[in-house]
Design goal:
182 residues, alpha/beta, 18% strand, 4-stranded mixed beta sheet, single chain
Length: 182
């Protein structure tokens, strides 16, 4: 049986659901007795694009669980599960352990998440990636062909403690897949 509604925010093609659309899907999920999950691999890009709060893009619309992605935003392999429905916490904790999905060095993963959240680096990275994509679209490249990831101090190319080195580390890596220009 169907037990959950799971949506990406944003999806692979760049579709971003507005807070109103998320709320409509949340109402639908409640009406049908479904749990409501948001795949947030590109959540930062969606929040930056919508220029709204993270809560407006998720929990205020009825999202009960958010997979908050950091890898596509410069992280090195860390994601966060955020539960807005308290009853989901304990069962997930049990299921993760039972399935063997526990990291032996969780503090190393947590350190990069904390670094990304501090000073809204996660949102700055997303804004830069979105701006790079908008620029390429303005040149005629189809948005569906563009994938941009922003990096900062979490993946340095320069390790000196200087302002110029820090500037060098703040970069975007953009991939354009083959296909027609528009």
């Amino acid at each position: 049986p169907v037990t959950a509604l799971s949506i990406p925010q944003a999806n692979e093609a760049g579709c971003v659901y507005t807070p109103g659309e998320v709320a409509a899907m949340g109402a639908f999920a409640r009406e049908k007795g479904l749990r409501f999950h948001m795949d947030g691999a590109r959540f930062a890009n969606a929040v930056a694009h919508l220029e709204c709060s993270p809560a407006a893009a998720s929990s205020e619309g009825g999202v009960e669980a958010l997979s908050f992605g950091f890898v596509k935003n410069g992280g090195m392999g860390a994601e966060a599960l955020i539960f807005f429905a308290p009853d989901m916490i304990e069962v997930t904790r049990y299921n993760r352990k039972r399935a063997g999905h526990l990291q032996s060095k969780g503090r190393y993963l947590a350190a990069q998440l904390l670094a990304m959240l501090k000073g809204d680096l996660w949102l700055d990275n997303a804004r830069r990636a979105n701006a790079a994509k908008e620029y390429l679209v303005s040149l005629g490249v189809s948005a569906a062909r563009i994938d941009t990831i922003s990096y900062g101090k979490e993946r340095p190319t320069c390790t000196e403690s200087t302002e110029s080195c820090w500037a060098q580390n703040r970069r975007d890596v953009t991939t354009i897949t083959s296909g027609a220009a528009s």
